[in-house]
Every structure is written in C-alpha cells, then in structure tokens.
Design brief:
- It is found in: Cytoplasm.
- Its main location: cytoplasm.
- Keywords: Cytoplasm, Repeat, TPR repeat.
- This is Sperm associated antigen 1a.
- This protein is mainly α.
- Among the domains are: 144 residues, Tetratricopeptide repeat domain (Serine Threonine Protein Phosphatase 5, Tetratricopeptide repeat); 128 residues, Tetratricopeptide repeat domain (Serine Threonine Protein Phosphatase 5, Tetratricopeptide repeat), CATH 1.25.40.
- The chain contains 15 helices and 3 strands.
- Strand 1 and strand 2 form a beta hairpin.
- Helix 1 runs antiparallel to helix 2.
- The longest helix is centred in the middle third of the chain and has 35 residues.
- The N and C termini lie far apart (90 Å).
- 34% of the residues are buried.
C-alpha cells in the first residue's frame, strides 16, 4: 500500500511505495520538459576495440563478452486505461524507481503525463497515479515543493487518494510546515487507521506544535476535512497487494510484541508491589502470569521462589531456583533462596553447599554467613540425633 515512511530531513523526506510496481536516480527539471544527462563525447567505451566489444579477464587477457537478453516484458504490462505507448512509459518509470533511479523515473512519468495531454486522455485515476508517482520521485530527490504541487494535482483528480495525501504530508513536514502536515496525516488516518507512519508522525508533530504554538495549538490548525464514509468503505474493500499484506502482518506482529511487553511490565510491577505488602499468594499469581509471556526471565523464578518460601512451599521454591540456575548458573539469589528451600525441606547438607556457593561468588553477603551458621548448627544437631537413635551393635 506504500505506507512506509522515511523520516524527513531538512531537505526532504522519503516516499511511500509507488502504485503497482515502483521505480530509480538523478535530477530532472519539473513540468513537461526534461533534462538529459550529459555523456562524455569522443571517448571510446571501455572494452570496445576494433569494433568488437571485449572485457578483461581476471588473468589480464581479453575474452569476448557474452550477450545476455534483458527481460523487458514488464514494459508491456497493462496500466489502467493508458494506451500502450503511455503504459510503457509508466511501467518503465516504475521499474527505474524500484531500482533507485529517481531522476530517470521522474523523466518517464513526465513524458507519460505530457503524452496524456497531447493525446487528450481523460482518465483521472491514471493521471492521479502518474502525478503521485512523480511526486514520490521529487520527494526522494529532496524537492518537497514540487512534490506538494504534484500531490495537490493528484488529489484534484482523485480526492482523498491515500498515497498523494501521505506524500504531501511528508513533504510539508520536511519543509517544517507542521500544521499542513498534521492535517494531511489526520486525513490519511480517517481513510486507513492502519498507516503506522501517519500515527507516528501525528505524535511527533503534535509535540512540535505544542512547543511552537503553546496550549492553543489546535485553534491555529487549518480545518481538517471530513472524509466521506463512502470513501472509507471503498478503501477498505480494495484488494490489497502482497506487499501491503506483509506490511500489515509486520505491523500487527510489532503491535503484539509491544502489547505483551506492556502487559509483562505491569504484571511484574504488581507482583513486586504485592510482595512488599506481604500478599505472597497474589504476587505468586502475577509472576506466574509473567512467565507465560517471558518463560526465560530468570528474575521471575527467583521472585516467585520468595513467594513459595513465605508460603512454606519449599519444594516449589527449590524447583523455581533450579530453573533460574539453568538460565543463569552464577545467580547468587537463586543459590541463596534454594538454600532456604533446602533448609525448609530439612536437607541441611544441600543448604550448606548452596550457601557456601553464594559466599564463594560474593564473600561479603552477611545474610549468607549468618544462614550458614544456622544451617551448620542444624546439620550438626541432625547428625547427633541420628547417632542417638542408631542402635549399638
């Protein structure tokens, strides 16, 4: 659909994808005429000797260049109601644009536009596309003023056409005519709310307008046209291209990632707040929800282990610490909390081993030293009790 946008610079912005195929680079004059690129005169072309075209081989010798047929079938593709010779000009412009030759593409679109006038072609839709495509070339070459003029002509032919609106908005923004850009972007979003470039630009320009015009910035805007419902319905019913479908799928995937990230951050914060309030069961549930979004987040396992420990669910606390250590083998919190879980399970030897691991990683953890003393005492007592209950032979 051509809703991709390059961030405009002071000399001009990027252009959305052209209608149907798109086109390639250079600079051309505006209007019906065109400026040919100068070529060196009199100099022999490289690889031509004695009337035979040759090219150098890697070994320094000469070998004849194989002639390869160039596929030009795209030139004969139908192009709306345009007659064949004008359709070829448009298709060639699209091809050049697609390969980054914007100046050459501009020349072809200009020839097609002039050809329509000479032949008396009355096809508003085709002329709208030609002006919109040429506007994209101007925008790519940094000529925002001519881009705006061509987009305006296109919109006179086909009101509420999406691409000319979007390209004109980008051109206005590159010229720092933010109010006009804002109006066009908002009009685009009335037609298609899925144009992410327009959403991003509206947010960006809103900040600029607030800085520029203060709290009353809305009152200084030109009137934003109301797009007829019939136009919106017609746009939604248009079949979309493969590129448009891919772009929409990519945007949907990005939106889903952002949504999940926001949900994750909120749930984790709620879990942390509940722990501070001593509501460990509720906090445990929040951390569990987080793990459905990010199952490889180590901190979630160590945080949930705290909740299990406070609820005396020592086996589950140990399992969460095991999971954390699989993700981060040197995680001090996981070792320390697993030691507490072992202590709760009365496995004092394993608890002692984990506490010693903590102190080996960081000898300055006072809590681990104190807990090791307690666990060592419990281990000693356990061994004495076992000895006392062992019958003598």
């Amino acid at each position: 659909m051509g809703n991709t946008q390059e961030k405009p610079s002071g000399s001009g912005g990027g252009a959305a994808r052209l209608d149907q195929a798109t086109a390639g680079s250079g600079t051309r004059s505006r209007g019906g005429g065109s400026v040919k690129k100068p070529h060196a005169q009199g100099a022999p072309e490289k690889g031509v000797a004695n009337g035979t075209q040759r090219e150098s081989s890697p070994a320094g010798g000469q070998q004849e260049q194989d002639s390869h047929a160039v596929d030009t079938s795209y030139l004969d593709a139908p192009a709306g109601a345009l007659p064949p010779h004008l359709a070829r000009l448009k298709n060639e412009g699209n091809h050049l644009f697609k390969h980054g030759q914007f100046g050459d593409a501009l020349e072809k679109y200009t020839q097609a536009i002039d050809g329509c006038a000479e032949a008396g072609i009355d096809s508003p839709e085709d002329l709208c596309i030609l002006y919109s495509n040429r506007a994209a070339c101007y925008l790519k070459d940094g000529n925002s003023t001519d881009c705006i003029q061509d987009c305006t002509k296109a919109l006179e032919l086909q009101p509420y056409s999406l691409k000319p609106l979007l390209r004109r908005a980008m051109a206005y923004e590159s010229l720092e005519r933010y109010r006009m850009a804002y109006v066009d972007y908002k009009t685009v979003l009335q037609i298609d709310t899925g144009v992410q470039a327009a959403h991003d630009s509206v947010h960006r320009i809103t900040k600029m307008l607030i800085e520029q015009d203060g709290p009353e910035w809305r009152e200084k805007l030109p009137e934003i046209p109301v797009v007829p419902l019939s136009v919106q319905v017609q746009h939604r019913q248009k079949p979309i291209s493969i590129e448009q479908a891919q772009a929409r799928a990519a945007r949907a995937a990005q939106d889903e990632v952002r949504r999940k990230e926001a949900q994750f951050t909120l749930l984790k914060q709620k879990g942390n707040d509940l722990v501070k309030k001593g509501q460990f069961q509720e906090a445990l549930e929040k951390y569990s929800e987080c793990l459905t979004i990010k199952p490889d987040e180590c901190a979630l396992y160590t945080n949930r282990a705290i909740c299990f420990l406070k609820l005396n669910h020592f086996k589950e606390a140990k399992q969460d610490c095991d999971s954390a250590l699989q993700l981060e083998p040197g995680n001090k919190k996981a070792f320390y909390r697993r030691a507490l879980a072992y202590k709760g399970l009365q496995d004092y030897l394993s608890a002692s081993s984990d506490l010693q691991e903590v102190l080996q990683l960081d000898p300055n953890i006072r809590e681990a030293e104190q807990e090791l003393e307690v666990v060592t005492s419990l281990l000693r007592q356990s061994l004495m009790d076992n000895t006392a209950h062992t019958p003598r032979v």
